[in-house]
Amino acid sequence: MKTKKSKIARIIAGTLALTAVAAVAAGGTFAFLTARTEEKINNFSFQIDSLDANLTESNWDGIVDYDGDTPIYGYDGNRPIYGYLNGNKNNPVYDSKAQGAGTRPTREKDGNSIVYGEDEAKKMIPGTTARKSPVITNTGTVCDEWVAAKITFVYGKDSKNAGKPVNEVDMKQISDIISIDYKVSSGDKWDRVEGSADSVSQVFFYKDCLKIRANASDAKIKGDKTAPIFTKVSVKETATNEQIKKLEDMGGFAIYIEGFGAQKEVGENYAAFKTWGQSNIVFTHTPTNDNPASF
């Protein structure tokens, strides 16, 4: 399977801000994450790699981490596992260029098969669920981070409008039969600050600042991560054949997720971050009709 990961970081109005983007789709997956650069201005040196984050969905595609652009499917102690020979968990691959690298596990050590949300999403009928668990992890070396995320519903890869935001009529058809367990209730950590569960686009802020990893010298030790924005996408048991056919005719849909991180100094607490974020957070990778998401 192909995985795509990119990284971007920049200084905005004196604040080190990161844009971390990832997209996930029912029936397919694609991801754009964060990149880092360095700048030198006159006699002042600025290291932009101090702010970094990534987005993973292990229940969806088996990927638990990244080594640069290379997916990691697990760890053996501190050794990253880059794949499994023949998909068998008894045969981990520790060399990213060796045979079996890039192959996610399809069999547990006891031989039982593994099913991922990506597989479940390809054969959904009323009452079925595809597991998903998008989380953002602070992988930087210097800064604690506030993070935000934006979700946009786009047409699926089999649609003639693939990657473009769905229109309001089609979004209504999706909402009529699809249920997503967003973690925005009382006691949850995500706060929906724009849109609703039925909106084409929704913006979420995370209520806790993600602390830096404990040992900055060990890249395998990660910092705090968010709770999942949601954990499953389900087809309602009440869905009719006619409603299912409408989604089939539109070519399916995908859920595109992009993230944003800012160093902790933008807000001393969540209320301050939320005030700052509503004026300063700009999501620059949101799919449009002129610039659709790429599968």
Overview of this protein structure:
This protein folds into two domains: 8-62 and 122-280; 70-115, no CATH class. Helices cover 13% and strands 32% of the residues. It has helices at residues 58-61, 117-120, 168-177, 241-249, 270-280; strands spanning 8-12, 15-25, 28-31, 38-41, 44-47, 53-56, 65-67, 70-72, 74-76, 79-81, 83-84, 92-93, 129-131, 135-138, 145-155, 178-180, 190-194, 201-206, 232-235, 253-263. The strands form seven sheets. Strands 1, 2, 3, 15, 17, 18 and 20 form a seven-stranded antiparallel β-sheet that branches. The protein has a three-stranded antiparallel β-sheet with strand order 13-19-16. Strands 4-5 form a two-stranded antiparallel ribbon. β1 (8-12) and β2 (15-25) form a beta hairpin.
Record the SSE blueprint.
Elements: E1 8-12, E2 15-25, E3 28-31, E4 38-41, E5 44-47, E6 53-56, H1 58-61, E7 65-67, E8 70-72, E9 74-76, E10 79-81, E11 83-84, E12 92-93, H2 117-120, E13 129-131, E14 135-138, E15 145-155, H3 168-177, E16 178-180, E17 190-194, E18 201-206, E19 232-235, H4 241-249, E20 253-263, H5 270-280
Antiparallel strand pairs: 1-2, 2-3, 2-20, 4-5, 6-14, 7-8, 9-10, 11-12, 13-19, 15-18, 15-20, 16-19, 17-18
Describe the structure concisely.
The chain has about 300 residues and is an alpha+beta fold.
